[in-house]
Amino acid sequence: MSEDVTWKKMAWRYVDENRIGDHICYYSDLRKMQAHYPGWTISKPLPTIFQEIAESWQRRLHAAV
Q1: Tens digits of residue pLDDT in 4-16
Q2: Taking Cα atoms as reference points, which of 39, 54, 41 lies closest to residue 3?
């Protein structure tokens, strides 16, 4: 998704070990979250979030010049 919104090839490599500070486990079941915060819901699709992050970084980069 990053490449889709930035039009730039991402430089990455896979390393089969945990980084310091990484979570060991993630839970994607949002029922408990929604039970504790009934007014909360996912309001933006993931591609929109990536687009907003990329646009924010573009504004920061142009402001720094």
Answers
A1: 999 999 999 999 9
A2: 54
